[in-house]
Amino acid sequence: MAAFNRRVDLADGTFRLCRLVASETPPWRFIAEVEGIGHFETESRDLFDALAACRLWLAGHGAVLLVAGAARDVYPSGMMRENGGRMAYRIRHGRRAERADVVDIFAPADPGVIATVAEQKENFEAWIRSLAP
Question: N- or C-end of the chain: fewer Cβ atoms within 10 A?
Fold first, then answer.
């Protein structure tokens, strides 16, 4: 299991540290603990899905997790998901993703790049459409 401490921004303008624990091999288990919010644990088809579930849980508490996997322009390919979903592409509309665009979904991220789970999915779908001839 890999463990990280990442920032969680709260609706009142304060922040807390979130302890994340993620499996490194299947089954893909994920745990998040945030003081004052609680404990979240899931097992999912990949770590990107587990992270999305955690983000939804945090959103219900008015909190946002500041990791690359929550950025509007980050999304894994099918092959990345088959390999656990720990890595994803930073996508740019009208341009295919390349190896240089790969990011760790648990890397820290700035608040200005974060999107909701739905916004991130919509951006990914728009990116797919942008690649059509």
Answer: C
Taking the C-alpha atoms of residue 87 and residue 10, their distance in angstroms, rounded to an integer, is 26
Phi, psi of 37 (to 5 degrees): -110, -50
Question: How would you label 12-27 residue by residue, b for 16+ Cβ within 10 Å and e otherwise?
Answer: eeeeeebebebbeeee
What's the pLDDT tens digit per position in 31-79?
A: 999 999 999 999 999 999 999 999 999 999 999 999 999 999 999 999 9
Element spanning 75, H or E: strand 74-75
**Domain, as residue range, for 68:** 2-130
The count of structural domains within the chain is 1
Separation of alpha carbons 40 and 58, rounded Å: 9
User: Cα–Cα distance between 3 and 39 in angstroms, integer?
Assistant: 15
DSSP letter at 71 equals: B
